[in-house]
Structure formats: structure tokens, C-alpha cells
Amino acid sequence: MKTEELLIAGFGGQGVLSMGKILAYAGVMQGKEVAWMPSYGPEMRGGTANVTVMISDAPIDSPVVTHFDTVIVLNQQSLDKFENAVKPGGRLFYDSNGLKTLPTRKDINIYHIPATEKAAELGTTKVFNIMVLGGYLKIVPVVSVEFVEQGLYKSLPERAHKLIPLNIEAFHNGASIVEVIQELQ
Amino acid sequence: MSKEIKLLKGNEAIAEAAIRCGCDAYFGYPITPQSEIIEYLAAEDPYNKRTGMLVLQAESEVAAINMVYGAACTGKKAMTSSSSPGMSLKQEGISYLAGAELPCLIVNVARGGPGLGTIQPSQADYFQTVKGGGHGDYNMIVLAPYTVQEQYDFVKLGFDLAFKYTNPVMILSDGAIGQMMEKVTLSEQLPRETPDHEWTAKGKPTNRERHYITSLYLQSEVMEQKNLQLQAKYSEIRANEVRYEEIQTEDADYLLVAYGISARIARKVVQLARAEGIKVGILRPITLWPFPSARLKELAQQVKGMLTIEMSAGQMIEDVRLAVEGAVPVKHYGRMGGIIATPTEVFINFKKLFIE
Amino acid sequence: MEIDVEQYKKDLLAQGAEVVFSKTKNLTDTPFSYCGGCGHGVAHRLIMEVIEEMGITDKTIGVAPVGCAVIAYEFWNIDAVQAAHGRASAVATGIKRTNPEKFVFAYQGDGDLAAIGTAETVHTCNRGENIAIFFINNGIYGMTGGQMAPTSLIGMPSSTAPYGRNPDMHGYPLSLTNLLAQLPGTYYITRQAVNTAANVRKCKKAIRQAFENQKLKKGVSLVEIVTNCNSGWKMTARQANKWLEENMLSQYPLGDIKVPKTDN
């Protein structure tokens, strides 16, 4: 597998960084090379947060890139800022909740994960980010589901381990709700 | 037995490595982007739960480095960490540590300056770190990690070198390496022990002369002798401890010289260049002092030009130019203000400077 | 004519002389080079005597300051460490925290402790480090040639306030010791002097107390020693002693400031 270069962007508090961490840990458990590079600082205090996650079979060179294989946007600012950061032929995931506009590019694959709505429906807004992760990995299986569970154990504090079954359920829910908006031939 | 692998932030790797290599004490003051070091140590609570290692939040960087000085006087493995503005405050203490020939480990997870600057990563502390920083003729051994694994590994290496040469050692990292997570293969827990070094001040028994640890030599002749002895030690370090990594230099027509996060960028630049048939290699200094000058001089006979990639206005470039003595053009590309240059951006500028 | 002191001693003993007083082994044979009348020599001697009397020389580490006592290494025959200006209590913290079984003291002047080292002093006291601090207060910077100190009295001339300390310009004499007594981290705070034989004896008791307190692990013991600096004050030793009694001691009255509550 070549390197998957992924950017996840949204509001601070949406679990963007921890979603990236769970994915990175799943990669580690599967024996892959990973890099997790956050934006940090005051901008995280209620503002936008984003994280780059790279997963590869070979050592990762630059953890900093201009364009990504996949971008997941979870708010309007992130869509505005990062739609053009998807490589031609790459993938853009979004959750339409709170979006005033939708992606417009024709040269990329576009997917919709209505995770906010589904999580609210199930009363599990806390695991919203895992639902997004489930939707993403359904389309881009860079790591196997069993390792995501191990990743959860590794990256969540022990007191949160009792919530892992709920997370797994959310993960599968995410996989079931992801919709193809546009796929290139 | 199977290797223990963990996903750690660069800052957390420093902290975990300190506990595992048997460090006796950490003294520090919070500053972004390196506060995870003291936070991780505080949460692990090694004093009560692991090795007995002391973790103390000082009232300032000035106090922290002087606490390190005190602990080092007794032969303890002591360390501190900070980021650029805090490192400026530590310079007084570092000069005293160097003058009194005390071993210790200092970590700088650098951010942009001058002044209060930015909390985003930077490599603009190169001059401060390798050219002195504090007053007087002294040098520190400076290690520059470019992966989270190296952040981890260089803690033990740093202490080993510090005690081998009774000299302060600095890990010069940056906010990017400090904040990013990568997998780290952890080492075995080493015992926390204090070997009976001959030079320590731990209380005078009746059967030896007092030990007085100082950097004060009021008589000029004695001070000069002390300086000459220090310089002899630095020469020995220059002869023995130069470390660097070469990447695809065998057939290189151009050489990138970069350390830390910039060397990661450089690796991608090499791929971009070679995809276009331009043979580019990298020399990555691992020790910024002593600097791999001799190897750069050799490579200057092979390549047509060198490009330093630094997150500064160009500081290390001076050492590269000194090393190659005008044999090839040496140019710089870098961003400031906490911006990490992307590989594409560096490659475009490389071509502008050398090819077009 | 040079006198061979060792030979002279031997000759006296051979003649049946009795030893009634000898210098503590914790002082070197180097004669004090402090100005005649200065309190540093007495303070050095008292501290070194106490360490010998308590039998803790092999467990004691001293921290020397910047100031006149920067040359303490000439005289202290114990393991010791030179600190940067003002940082003695931070250095002492580093030593004590990593060597809690040792006895650690910082020896500091007024500029060191109460000006450039104020932050280190306050926070060391606030953390309640189990160390002793000996604070030599002579109201002036002696070593660098008589500049104004944080403890200089109002109207007191110095080379940087040649027309006398003027509060409008220079602020007021700082009694950091009294401030430190407010901190829960301090256990024992006292102000002493070495200007008379009686005061020397009292001062030694206080120094002993400071070292004894370290065993209790209850925080900082600080002994301020008000002394003269006849050179800096531009006086003879005799005049300086009189001036100390008439001026310094009214600003800095002697006595215990904070004493341990007795446990019943």
C-alpha cells in the first residue's frame, strides 16, 4: 500500500484530534508506520482544529504536505479551506450538518457521512467522531476493523474503556450510513 | 521478548525516555509547545509510582536550570526542558554548567521568535544553541532528532555523552517534532543509580580533600588554563562525536543539508527531484555541534551545489559555507514565523536556485 | 620576619602550653581576606563550627553566592558549590531534593538574596525546602565597590546613590525576611548580629537551630545576620559598629521573627 495522507478538520471539541489518534493507533497495531501531526495552540480553544494522519507500509518522509489523498471536513470553515487541498482523483468526506454550501469539485470522489444526525438520533453524540471514522474506513480501508478496536483500547484512558462497545457500535453505524455523492470512473 | 511499541507525541517520548533511562530529576517551567513533557511526567508520577525520579515545577526557567545545576553537582542525572523564549532565560545557567563542567540534559522544543514570537515550530535558535548563547568560550553537544523515535533515543544518548565529557548536552527539537505522534519502540527500564563520580560535592568525608564546584577563577592565568583545558575537551568531542546521516548521496549531483523536521521535508524533496531525473541527496547533521564539516567538505568535491533547508532566515548555512570553503555554491531556502515549508515548495525553489 | 606558625605551636606545646581554643577543621588555614571588622569571617566560622560540632561534615553541602563571599571557597573546608548571582536557593533546592538525606545551606548577601535572587528566595521559601539560608545583610554591595543594596537605609550614601538613598527615586529598604515569615513554607526565621560577643553566641545558637531543623523536614530555616561593611560604608571598623547599632538595628531589629510552635 502506498502512503495514505489524510487530513481531518473541524471544530475543536468534535473529537478531530482523538479520531486521528485512534486511527493512528490502529495503524500501529496493524504494524504500519504512522504519523499524526496536529494543529496546536490558541486556535484549538473553540476554533478550528485539524490533524494530519499518515499511514504507510514504509517509513514516512515528510509529515507535512500541501495536498492530501483524503480530506474529512466537519464544518464550513474546513470545507472552504481544504476542498482544494484534495489531490485530483482523491477523496473528500463531509457531514452536511451545519454546512451552507456543498463541495463543488468535479475531479475528486465525494462522500457524505450524516454522522451528526445519526448520532443525535441514537443519543450518542459523544461518539460522533467514531461514526465518521467508520464511514471513512468503509470507503478507504487503510486499517482493518479489528485493529480499530485495539486502537481504541490503546488511545482511550482506562476509565473510558467501558465505553468501547458503544464506540464499536458507532463505528459500524458510520460504515452503514456513508453515502456516495460522486465517484470518478 | 516482544518489543514494546507505543504511539507517542515527541514531547511525551522525551518524558518517557527520561524515566526509562534512569534520570534522577526533571526541573521545568511550562511553555508551549513543550508543556507535555512536564505534564506527562507529572501524570506518570515516577517519584511515587515508578523509579523515584523527581519532577518539580520551578518558578521560572532561571530557577529550573539552577536546580539542574545543584542536582548535577552531586552527580545526579538531571534535566530540564523549555522552548525558545524560556531557553533564552536558561542561558546564564548553561554557561555556568559548562564552566563548572557539569553533566546535564537540556531540551529545547523550539518555536518562532524573536521576542514572544509564535508558538509554532521554528529552527531559528541554531545560533543561540551552537554558537554559545550564554557568555564565555564554551560548547554544548547538540543533538537534533528528526523522528519521535529519535526524540526518545537521544535522551539516553544525551545523558551518556553529558557524563562521558562532564558537559551539558542539548536536544534541539522543534514544535513540529514535539507535537507530532509516531510509533516508538521503547527500551527496557534502566535502574536509577548514581555512580560515585570523583568530582561530585556530596559532603566531605575525612579521608579526602573538599570538593568545590565552581566556574570562578579570579586569577587570569588560572582562568586561561581552565579555558585551554575546556578547549582540549571540545577538540576531543569534535574528533569523536560527530554524527550525521546520509540519504542517497552516492550518486548525488546536489545536496540538501537539513536537520530536524526540515530533514523530513527534505526526504520528500529527494523523491520529487529523482522523479524528474535530478539526482539529489541529503546530509542530515545529527549533531549540530560538533558539526559534520569534514564530510561536507568531501561532498563538496562531488556535488554541484548545496541547499540548506531551515525554518529560519538561514543560520546553519554559515557552518555549511565554512565547511565547504567556497568549493560549491551553498544556498538557503526556508520559511519563518512558524511556517513549515512543504516539499513541493522547497523543490520549486531548489529548481529556481540551481537548475533554471 | 616570617614566623613558622607550626613550629611556634610545637615549641609552645613542648614548653607545656595547654590548648584552650582551636580553629574548627571545617575552616582552611587560609587567613580571612575580608576587611578587618567585617562580619563574614565570624559568620563563616560559626557555620563551620556548628557543622563540625554536629558531626555532619560528610553530609553537608554549602552553596556560595556572588558577593564578597564569592571567595568562601578559600575558607570553607567542606564540599561546596558556587552559584550564579541570586540563584543560591534554587541550586540548594536542586541539591536537597535529589539528596534529601544531606544537610544543605545557602549563604547569601543582601543583593544576592533580596534583589537579583528575590524570585528564587521567595519560591524556595514558599515550597518549604528543607534547607538553611544564611543571609548576610550589610546594606550595601561590598564586593563590587559600595553600590546601593535593596537593604540600604534611607539617606545612606553609596556609589550609586551618592547623595543618599532617596525613596522617591530608589524605593525603600526591603526587609525580605519579614515578608518571608508570612509564608507557610518557612519554619524558623530569625535576625541576628555578630557585632558583640553576646550576639555572636546567640547567632551561633540560631545557626545550630537552623541545621537541627533540617532533620525535622518542616521547611526553610533562615538566619539573617546584620553586619557592617566598614569599607563600603566608608568608616573605620569601630565607627561602623557604632553606626550599625544606631541605624541598622532600628531598621532591622534583632530577634526571632518566626519560631516553631512547640509540639506538646
Explain what this protein looks like in three dimensions.
The complex is a heterotrimer of chains A (185), B (356) and C (264). With 185 residues, chain A is of the alpha/beta class. Chain A has one domain: Pyruvate-ferredoxin oxidoreductase, PFOR, domain III (Pyruvate-ferredoxin Oxidoreductase, domain 3, 3-Layer(aba) Sandwich), CATH 3.40.920. Chain A has helices at residues 16-29, 76-82, 115-122, 128-139, 145-155, 164-177; strands at 4-11, 33-38, 48-56, 68-73, 86-94, 109-112, 179-182. In chain A, helix 1 (16-29) packs across helix 5. The two termini of chain A are 21 Å apart. Chain B is an alpha/beta fold and 356 residues long. Chain B folds into two domains: 4-186, 3-Layer(aba) Sandwich (Rossmann fold); 245-354, 3-Layer(aba) Sandwich (Rossmann fold). Chain B has 13 helices and 15 strands. Chain B has helices spanning 10-20, 36-44, 46-49, 61-73, 84-99, 126-130, 148-165, 175-179, 220-240, 261-275, 293-299, 317-324, 343-354; strands at 4-9, 25-28, 54-57, 78-82, 104-110, 141-143, 168-174, 181-186, 212-213, 244-247, 254-257, 280-285, 287-289, 305-309, 330-333. In chain B, strand 6 (141-143), helix 7 and strand 7 (168-174) form a beta-alpha-beta unit. In chain B, helix 1 (10-20) crosses helix 2 (36-44), helix 4 runs parallel beside helix 5 and helix 10 (261-275) crosses helix 13 (343-354). The longest helix of chain B has 21 residues, at 220-240. Chain B starts with a strand and ends with a helix. Chain C has helices spanning 5-14, 40-54, 88-98, 110-116, 118-127, 167-170, 176-180, 197-216, 230-233, 237-251; strands at residues 60-64, 80-82, 103-109, 132-137, 140-141, 147-148, 186-193, 220-226, 255-258. In chain C, strand 7 (186-193), helix 8 and strand 8 form a beta-alpha-beta unit. In chain C, helix 2 (40-54) packs across helix 8 (197-216) and helix 4 (110-116) packs across helix 5 (118-127). The longest helix of chain C is centred in the C-terminal third of the chain and has 20 residues, at 197-216. The N and C termini of chain C lie far apart (62 Å). The mean pLDDT of chain C is 95. Classes of the chains: A alpha/beta (185), B alpha/beta (356), C alpha/beta (264). Chains in contact: A-B, B-C. The interface between B and C is large, with 40 and 37 residues.
